[in-house]
Amino acid sequence: MKKTMILGAAMLLALNLSSCKDQAPTKENQAETQATTEVSQSEMAFGVRGNCGMCKKTIEKAARSVDGVASAEWNRTQKRIAIQYDAQKADVMGVQEAIAAAGYDTEQIAADENAYKNLPDCCQYDRSMAMNQTDASEDAHEEHAH
């Protein structure tokens, strides 16, 4: 009787170990998942007109509202936004359309006129201002007085 109980317990232990072994992630599976994630993440930067911190919040919020956009960072001095997105869910034109709908001109799409007119006064930028200035920096802007 004692041998039967020990044998039964050993069989249960063996079954549990083998089922856990099948469920545990392997280094191969983890690397494959990571590679798939990395492949689908894309980065892009393009010009967006705006003036102030309130513009920054609105522009970034509009970009992040697009399904698949992981991050958005608008540089006020460069008039440029950098986005990270899942290329299988989002595309750059969709992001530019969302920003334009919020009232901001992008390199490819002019802002919705009504949305632009409804921006606060401080956010109604000069519609002919240069954008996507890759050589400008926030630090250089802060060195001179306004």
UniProtKB/TrEMBL annotation:
It comes from the Bacteria. InterPro entries: HMA_dom, HMA_dom_sf. Gene3D superfamilies: 3.30.70.100. Residues 35-107 form the HMA domain. It comes from Mesonia sediminis. Residues 1-24 form the signal peptide. Pfam families: HMA. This is Heavy-metal-associated domain-containing protein.
